[in-house]
Amino acid sequence: MEKLKEATLYEKLENKRVKCNLCSFHCTVEEGRMGICKTRANKNGVFYALSYGRAYGYSIEPIEKKPFYHYKPGSKVLSFGTPGCNFSCLNCQNYFMSQSTKEIENAYREVKFTAPKEIVTAGENADGFAYTYTEPTIFYEYFKDCVEEQIKEKKEKFNVWVSNGYYSKQLLNEIMKEKKLDAARIDLKFVSNENYAKVCKASLKPVIENIKGLAKSKVFIELINLVIPGFNDTEEQITELTELIKGIDKKIPLHFLRFYPYYKMQGVPSTPDETLEKALKIGRENLEYVYAGNASIKGGEDTHCPECGKTLIKRRGMDIIENVLTEPFCPKCGREINLII
Ligand code: SF4
For the residues 177-199, what does the mean pLDDT come to? Predict the structure, then answer.
């Protein structure tokens, strides 16, 4: 029987209550209860990370699948997540993993315990590790121990998050200070707080603040935006989103993705090609690297030099057809490209 892992970044309050400072919900949790993510429990005034070590969904896959197009293109990652999530998105593609802790009591117990050492062994043939499928914030202690184990075993691997970006200030500071995270692909879902509340039961501001924070740090970031008909697909909304990112840094890669009806949003149609083409056009007017994914939009997955327009990387879905970059500079005009080789 594995020992329960005490949570990080929490405070002990009066009457055995605790306050979790891991994500921007800052849950105050009574003795015997759990936080919103239902992965952290207060047992007798001590807070525990219940899903620690309960990794599942393993697969070695191209980093382009996450999608990361500008971080180590062509590399392979070992992907995995643990049950639970701090968000409750109505359209979650991994709801059977992310929402399991909210729907089934002690859902994490149904997943075999995997020690960080075993994760490192499982990733032997990968170039790095992707903490994904569910929000890595809620298994932050596990992430840290997996990286510690790589350091101990002198493995030169990288570590990336696929994340909703809802960190607390404390977590953001720790991520930047500890330098264990190499890159994060953050989902900037809406520019409207109302939609964040309606679709994810969360809010916009912390996501923006964390993108701004990471953009100034050594953590490489890419953004995605799922274009959902009737929620964020108008010209005005797309313009507002891309201008907002431009105000942070126009070099941040942005991926517009096609929405498919799923989970509790079965009644919303999938995104038409024309909408993605419009998003790509508006995005490329404001930002240097914009893509359209989950779709076959001509040239929508290729990287071009923002200076001279030369095609640098040609892609089809997860496959790289051609890559002329051997260093992060355009071979034609010498312009520096925001990309980690
Ligand atoms: S991680 Fe977030 S949702 Fe979960 S207990 Fe902590 S503050 Fe609450």
Answer: 97
